[in-house]
Amino acid sequence: MSEDTSIQPSLGTTCNSRTYKKTTCKDIYITFAYKEDEPKKIEYVRINASSKENNCAVSFMETLADTLTFAIRRIRNEHEAAAIVKNLRFHKCLNCPVNKDHTTSCSDAIGQVLEREFEVSKQNI
Asked: Could you read off the pLDDT tens digit of each residue along the chain, which spans 125 residues?
């Protein structure tokens, strides 16, 4: 069952952040950290897989987080933000169980959360 939960961790920094827990084949945690001087601008993205047994996911998530951070920092308008979300959504993974959120893969889960985060933060891009 997929769980989409917003939780507030202590990152050890003074920036504001929002973390979501999504269940795919394993639990993943997606954190968005915001700039202090521009609280609606995402500073970076971190994605953590919850299991040591999920080795490929750990490497994949770190790479994807770095790539997303790079892309998000360069967004100039709403259409570019939508294009990032569109390219993450609806990929299918055979290990992802059927769930209430209709999450089909790790990248789909990240796309769902990123789409919501863009709405919540109302980035004036």
From this structure: 334 444 454 445 556 889 999 888 778 899 999 888 887 888 999 998 766 666 666 788 889 999 999 999 999 888 999 999 999 999 998 888 888 888 999 899 999 999 998 887 665 45
Domain layout of the chain by residue ranges: 5-121
Cβ density class 64-74: b for 16+ within 10 Å, e for less: bbeebbeebee
Q: Which of 124, 107, 102 is nearest to 45 (CA)?
A: 107
Cα–Cα distance between 124 and 67 in angstroms, integer?
Answer: 21
